[in-house]
Specification:
alpha+beta, CBS domain Like, 2 domains, 6-stranded mixed beta sheet, 10 helices, 14 strands, about 35% helix, binds zinc ion
Amino acid sequence: MKSNDQIFRFLIDHTPIRGQLISLDASWQKCYQQSDASEYAKELLGHALAAVTLLASTLKIDGSLTLQIRGQGAIHLLVAQATNDRTIRGLVRQSHEIENPDASLQEIFKADKIVITIDNGKGKPHQGIAPLTGFSLSEALEAYFEHSEQLPTRVWLASNESSASGLLLQKLPGELEDKDSWNRLTQLASTITDQELLELDENEILYRLFHEESIALFDAEPVRFQCSCSRNKTSNMIKSLGKSEASDILHEQGKIQISCEFCNANYEFDSVDVKQLFESDMNLPENYTTH
Ligand SMILES: [Zn+2]
């Protein structure tokens, strides 16, 4: 039986190679069902979510890791986020049909970079930029690792309507006892098919790929969907619009209604709520007030 919504870490004995396997299921379906983009765009979102969960876990981040591609193309926004609590959320936005599905990611997004932001909640978030290269997110992410982490890393990603799965192999610093092991193991891993990655359980995948190796497989770590939106954060967004713009919207629509694009939560503010928001602002000490 396949383990749902779990990450597995493993080590390959006698090599400095570590790996991770992930399957997002219920957590992924939540993101999948909320999107009205094309199947192609949703497949990319699944890849991105599997990738950020693998990245967040490999880099042992504290806080959140967000992958974002923003462009002017048929798909113009892709956001995937994972946290150190192993929660995920993501969205993809498409404005028109993709004319050539064999086009490169750069052409499909009309963008040339992937922005990876690590926010530990203290100070300025760390932003890494990787060129958007190739035809798949795994290619683009391998390039990112090569530049920023300098640890040889290979990633395999697959997604369909029920799961988003991934496999990551990384070579840690240090002499290889067995000089050919990295090549051999990555070549073996490359024989995995999307269907196997999506349907087999962790033991079956590891056996299928590396049955001649001795592997230490660690306990599963659960992953779940969770959105970090809140009424409080939405209030702050309204405050940042400014009093006059907020009044204009109230005047036109009778209330301010903001729904979260990650989870569809709906936040409503009537004229009393909005008045309170801006009044509480005025109660702040004078040097807090911005004009
Ligand atoms: Zn939300």
